[in-house]
Amino acid sequence: MIECDKNPAYFVNHFLAGPTSILPPSQQLATAQSAFNATLSAAMGGNRDALTGLTTQAQDVIDATRRYYGSSQAGATIIQQLLGTLRGLPGVQREKEAELLRALAPTEASIAANPAPSRQRKPRQPTLASAAKQASKAKIDIARYELKPDGTIVIVAGKSESTEPNPWLDDLRRKEDKR
After folding, report:
1. Using CA atoms, how far apart are residues 95 and 107, in angstroms rounded to an integer?
2. Residue 156: phi, psi to the nearest 5?
3. Pair 131, 121: CB distance under 8 Å
4. Phi, psi at 39, each rounded to 5°
5. HEC profile for the chain?
6. Cβ atoms of 144 and 156 closer than 8 Å
7. Looking at residue 160, what is its pLDDT?
């Protein structure tokens, strides 16, 4: 059996792909898949030690897949492909491999039966600027804008109800009338 204290490369790969890894989940998954593929190639070439360590490498891929993809369909697909690869190995159905497949069968079925719901995008709340721009495009005379505490924008149409005279506004209107 391949043990961490006998094979430093195995330890490094297992650490980098595991839950205590210092790598982000995407790199954990890539490391786990790379280590599994290398071990699989050695096992296919007749290396008994590689064959024995294959299930641990497979578990690293499954764990990293779950950390990166959660219970999404993409994660389920990767796990199903991995299990298919293990099932397809000639003469590999030893007790440990068979036990892994039995343990993962309910999880595989559960993921396939209950795919992760797609995230619904939260509707964007309009800004005051976008509301004012839309009102301007619609050629609506605006008396005032009201912003409510819940973020609702109320546009009150009509002429402004100014209580005080505004000399700058009066001056602007006179200039526009002269044109």
Report:
1. 19
2. -100, 115
3. no
4. -65, -40
5. CCCCCCCHHHHHHHHHHCCCCCCCHHHHHHHHHHHHHHHHHHHHCCCHHHHHHHHHHHHHHHHHHHHHHCCCHHHHHHHHHHHHHHHHCCCCCCHHHHHHHHHHHHHHHHHHHCCCCCCCCCCCCCCHHHHHHHHHHCCCCEEEEEECCCCCEEEEECCCCCCCCCHHHHHHHHHHHHC
6. yes
7. 66
Per-residue tokens: 129: 């600027």
| Token output for 16 | 């980098």
Half-sphere exposure of 179 (CA within 13 A, CB side): 4
Predicted confidence at residue 56, as pLDDT, reads 82
What pLDDT is attached to residue 4?
46
Which residue type is seen at 61?
A: V
How many residues belong to the chain?
179
Give the predicted TM-score (pTM) of the model: 0.47
Residues of the chain with pLDDT under 70: 1-7, 10, 90-99, 102, 107-119, 160-164, 179
How does pLDDT run across 157-177, given as a tens digit for each residue?
877 665 667 777 778 888 888
What pLDDT score was predicted for residue 148?
A: 83
Angle subtended by helix axes 73-88 and 48-69, to nearest 10: 170
